[in-house]
Every structure is written in structure tokens, then in C-alpha cells.
Amino acid sequence: MKTKTILSVLLLAGCAATLLTAADYRIKEVKVLPIESYPARTTVGEVTVAADPYPTNEKSLSAFDIRNLNSRGYFPVHVVIRNSSSDFYTIRTRNILLVTSTGQHLYTTPATILVEDLTGAGLTRDASSSKSTSPLVDFTDKELTNRLIEPGAVVDGFLFFFTPEPRKDFFVGSTLYIPKIEQEGTRKPLGPFSIPLDPALSTAAPKLSD
Q1: Which of 65, 101, 107, 143 shows its CA 20 to 30 Å from the CA of 51?
Q2: Is 44 exposed, middle or buried (0-12, 13-18, 19+ CB in 10 A)?
Q3: What are the boundaries of each domain within the chain?
Q4: Is a pLDDT exceeding 80 seen at residue 120?
């Protein structure tokens, strides 16, 4: 009986810790800079797409309240799109690829799956952040999803790429590949957008911290 009681207490304590972790999660603001500020970018027609990779735990921590996101295999890329045309365009993220230096093609991981994986293992939070909310809300709000891009508009969001073998040079030699965006109504394609990520990476080798 005593053993069962102890096990029950430990189970309840574990559940409480998980709930507390989610409840204490903090939102962090990610600023969108003028698109010319991003070294990794390309323009097709009158649409420019920029990519800002997050190669280290430290940089990922500036956007998400998790200390070891990269060490767990998740590598974010912040995508900024400027539509300088007079047309409406639609971006669909399902077919966006990260082509690695070894030629591997990686599709994006949905934010919901990422959060489920991380919360199942427990989150490591940053005590300096503020504005408590849930990780699911934060990741899904910041995720780049299918959306309409109005004339003259700038839209942005994160894509998440997973590797079971995280390494410090994951993004080195990689290219973000967006097959097309479509003109709304006519569905006329514009693209592809091929964005080498090396210009956005530091000359020093990125380091994964624990």
C-alpha cells in the first residue's frame, strides 16, 4: 500500500510539473526588419523572400522560450516576404524544402507536432522573458502558414526543420527552396525562390549550447 501511495504522489507531482511548465511559458517578440537588412534573400518579379536561419540555441532563445530548441533537433528559419506588386499572391508552405549541403531534402515540421514533442519531454524555459502564455499558442502564432499576401504587404513567419542528429553546422551550405507562390484568382505561378542561407550565417562556426 505504501509503495502505491508513493507512486501516486510521484505521478501527480510529475503532472503538476508539466502543467506548471506550460503555464509559465513566456512570449517573446520577434521584430521584422526592412527586407534589405536580411543577407539571405532573393527576388522573383516584384516579390522578395528573405530567410533568417536560427542556427544556435542562443538565437532560438531570442524568439522562443526554450533554451535547447536546436539541441533537440529543431532548427527555425524566419521567413519574410514582401509583395511589391499590385497583385494578390498566396503562399502554400506544404512544399517548401530545406536542401542541405549533403543534398538531403527536408520538409517543414508543423508547430503543433514540435510543441507536442517538446512538452512531452518537458520544456526548459528562460527566466528572463515575460508575458505568460502557452507554447502551443506562441509557436502556432509565429509559424508561417498558408496565407494571402496583399499588394504592398509584408508577411512573415517561422518554418521549423527537424533533424535527428543536430549539429552546429546544420544550416551551412543549405538552401531554402520555395517552388512557387500563386497569383490569387488566376493561380499563375511565380517562382521558384531559391535562397542560399550561407550569407545569413556568421563567419564563425555556430555553437550549440546545452
Answers
A1: 65
A2: middle
A3: 2-200
A4: no
